[in-house]
Design a protein that fits this description.
Number of helices: 4
CATH architecture: Alpha-Beta Complex
CATH class: Alpha Beta
Low-confidence stretches: none
Number of domains: 1
Strand content: 35-45%
Helix content: 25-40%
Shape: globular
Order of helices and strands: EHEEHEEHEHEEE
Largest sheet: 5 strands, antiparallel
Distance between the termini: 28 Å
CATH superfamily: Cyclic phosphodiesterase
């Protein structure tokens, strides 16, 4: 069985800029080469389901579009922080998400689509860290960090290892 997800990868130079922001944040940082905007996550796909998703993605009529990386936020909430993220501002990304999720395979998403780039995962914030994070959330809430042209959608395999997850491209759909 395959753990997989569909996502838009973040261009290397944009991810490196986000890594600079990460230095101000607590928690376990996402390495720049692993930064992406997740569309759907699948815990256990068999070979036929992987093939069906690839075929479905291949059939999509899509075009590249502009994405703004804007704002800083937290999941599940600012009072209980587990993930710190950079926001995404793009009307086209929600339209693409709707197209991409029209296949017949059940995803393991248990939340509404909120496009973002995960920057850091937090287990427990000390009081001083919490103040610093709340200040960063306030200072960067509406700041546009950068933008890029989304020109591909990737079906990644996500393999869990003792060093964390390892991603491998299973299929690339050029937009």
């Amino acid at each position: 069985m395959t753990r997989a997800f569909t996502a838009i990868p973040i261009p290397e130079e944009k991810a490196e800029k986000l890594a600079e922001l990460q230095s101000e944040l607590p928690g376990k940082k996402v390495r720049p080469e692993k930064m992406h905007i997740t569309f759907e996550f699948f815990k256990d796909l068999d070979e036929l389901e992987v093939a069906e998703i690839k075929t479905f993605l291949e059939s999509l009529d899509t075009k590249p579009f502009e994405v703004k990386i804007k704002g800083l936020g937290a999941f599940p909430s600012k009072s209980f922080i587990r993930v710190l993220w950079a926001g995404i501002d793009s009307s086209e990304i929600k339209q693409l998400f709707e197209k991409v999720s029209e296949h017949s395979i059940d995803s393991d998403n248990d939340h509404e689509f909120r496009p973002h780039i995960t920057l850091s995962r937090v287990n427990d914030l000390k009081k001083t860290e919490k103040k610093k994070v709340h200040q960063a959330l306030h200072d960067y809430s509406d700041l546009c960090f950068d933008s890029f042209t989304a020109d591909k959608l990737v079906l990644y395999e996500s393999e869990m290892t003792s060093e964390g997850s390892r991603y491998r491209e299973l299929y690339v759909k050029n937009l």
